[in-house]
Write a structure and sequence with these properties.
Helix content is 30%, strand content 17%. With 256 residues, it is an alpha/beta fold.
Length: 256
């Protein structure tokens, strides 16, 4: 996957969301300007069937609006201030700057030189058929399709897209249990194991896990790392990719 890009892969997690409102064109542009290889983003579907780039099922946290993404039309979403929820040092520097909730198609078109890690967040109504139809236009070597929800991932698998896949939460658990016992299931070969180094203070990733994932044909991408020393450590242990909210720092550390 992403075989035309250098290693380790550097992902802009929701763009450069430490600097700009997450999952917006402004955030993605900052990440691309910093030199990332891949933009990580999240997708829901509007009431009128438009695929839009936003993490939460509702607009409440990130915008000045309220309600489920799936209950709002694209026109209604377009009226919202997608910079409203961003805060830094107690300030809200992006409010009122016409930051919008973007269509997935517009994001894909805006950044033709990078890869995309697209997570399909919404299970019902299903956005899998329209999303895969759109993503099929992208060179599969520039794409990973992800879904944390196991039902959504199962639907993606039934369609058999050309692009490589991430793993659902249940699949990640199976891979982790296998790595520390009988081995990572080989049926996951060719997929991206995307995990945090720790979860609620407990270790998740390790050198052993990375070795056994590689032996089973998986890549390991770690999220979300913003400290250069930590990124260097995991790369030295064999991590294939680093996802960061502050990708400029990671680019500077790994591509001096």
């Amino acid at each position: 996957m992403f075989d035309s890009f250098p290693r380790p892969l550097i992902f802009g997690h929701r763009g450069a969301c430490a600097q700009a409102p997450e999952n917006t064109l402004e955030s993605f542009q900052l990440a691309v300007d910093a030199g990332v290889d891949v933009l990580e983003l999240d997708v829901h579907m509007s009431r009128d069937g438009e695929l839009v780039v936003i993490h939460d099922a509702t607009v409440d946290r990130t915008t000045n609006g309220h309600g489920a993404v799936s209950s709002l039309t694209l026109c209604e979403l377009d009226r919202l201030d997608a910079g409203y929820g961003y805060a830094r040092d107690g300030e809200h520097p992006w409010r009122g700057r016409r930051v919008k909730v973007s269509r997935l198609a517009d994001v894909l078109e805006a950044f033709p030189s990078v890869g995309f890690n697209v997570e399909l967040k919404q299970h019902r109504p299903s956005l899998v058929p329209p999303a895969l139809t759109l993503l099929d236009r992208i060179d599969p070597t520039r794409l990973v399709i992800a879904a944390e929800d196991h039902r959504t991932m199962a639907e993606i698998e039934r369609f058999g897209p050309r692009a490589p896949l991430g793993m659902s939460r249940e699949q990640v658990v199976r891979a982790l249990l296998g790595a520390y016992s009988s081995g990572v299931p080989t049926r996951f070969r060719g997929r991206a194991l995307q995990i945090p180094p720790t979860h609620h203070g407990l270790p998740v990733a390790s050198a052993l896990l990375i070795r056994r994932a590689h032996a089973a044909g998986l890549e390991v991408h770690l999220w979300t790392l913003d400290e250069p020393d930590e990124a260097r450590k995991w790369v030295a242990l064999g991590a294939d990719g680093i996802m960061s909210d502050a990708p400029a720092r990671i680019v500077a550390a790994l591509r001096p």
